[in-house]
Write a structure and sequence with these properties.
This protein has four helices and three strands, in the order H-E-H-H-E-E-H. With 62 residues, it is an alpha+beta fold. The chain has one domain.
Length: 62
């Protein structure tokens, strides 16, 4: 099991860098608002789990 602190990414910028998206943070925001990416919201801050993002994209490819 991966440690939560090692699995957590802060913000759309962090998620975009992890996913290597050409659309950058805007693409992450769009996918999050559409419900395609799992997100943890703490106030105005967004957090993404690397493991959840990996699962979301591997399920999409299948």
């Amino acid at each position: 099991m991966q440690e939560l602190s090692d699995d957590l990414l802060e913000g759309a910028q962090g998620a975009a860098a992890f996913l290597k998206l050409r659309g950058g943070p805007r693409a992450v925001y769009r996918m999050t608002e559409a419900g395609h990416l799992p997100v943890i919201r703490k106030g105005r801050r967004l957090f993404y789990r690397k493991s959840d993002l990996t699962k979301a994209f591997s399920a999409e490819a299948a």
